[in-house]
Amino acid sequence: MEAFAPGRVNLIGEHTDYNQGLALPFAIDRGITVTAEPIQARTIEVQALDLGQTDRFNLDSPQRIPGWPAFVRGTVAELSRAGVELIGARLTITGDIPRGAGLSSSAALEVALALALIALSDASAPDRIELARLCSRVENEWSGAQTGLLDQLSSLCGQPGHCLRIDFRTLEIRPVALELDEHRLVTLDSGSPRVNTSSGYNQRRAECSRACELLGLPSLREARLEMTQELPEPLGRRARHVIRSNARVDQAIAALERHDFPALGELLDESHASLREDYEISTPEVEDAVGALKAAGALGARIMGGGFGGHVLGLFGPGSTAPDGSLNVRPGPGARAYHQL
Ligand code: GLA
Q: Would you say 153 and 108 are in contact if contact means Cβ atoms under 8 Å apart?
């Protein structure tokens, strides 16, 4: 049995998922592949081929340990907790998404593991939204990052040639054609060390909850720009970022529909400025990487994903060349399991 789950790029709408907002991600054509073979014992044996490392644990009582094995153990534990009856397995993991790059290698790992284990055990699978929630609990409870559903939904629901307009209040997912004509989207590694990524992320999430409490609102989706003036700083700026980001998602869809790439580029630049000034998740290395994309002629460029490092995103027109080391990214299919040939 084999399962593949892609990483994702988020075109626009950042730090909106846990605020019941809007985002416009797509699954990329790179990801994680997990192969699974049955074994007699109630044991999970794992080989991470690219890392040259292994792990082994009892299927019925996975213990917590740090590093990549936490995602495997967490996925097994959360599947069991959801009533999926798993059998012992030998798993091998390989992938072609750069790790820790902000391209959601960890969500791809959780999703590929979950699909491979479910298929191997011939168990009935939760639907894709439930599966996204389950994988996101692995992130929250086993790795300590209080992330939302953006990465897992993108990986599970991706469609070739399309991005997904996700409304995190209703979990309605609408495919939007990503027709770029002669334009390209690329990512570029900022090389930022990404230390304290999850603590900075969790702090932003807590600030948004506090802003809601002070405004007496269930989520920032209900907030309006003028309300942000009632909030103390930095909460006002955090809320302002979220409100404007939601609006930018639909503006970006309108620009795509008009094939108006300069307008799309401008929205990417605005998103970056907002993430730097209002949400404060940029770093000097990220600024350099965004600057390098702009200097090479990008119509727009921005920090992407959780922030504090990782890859940045740029939109290039037909006449310009992205800097060396850039990765072309395009929408590929969502996660799937299949029998090996
Ligand atoms: C990370 C998280 C997502 C989302 C983004 C920011 O990728 O895993 O849930 O919050 O950051 O948009």
A: no
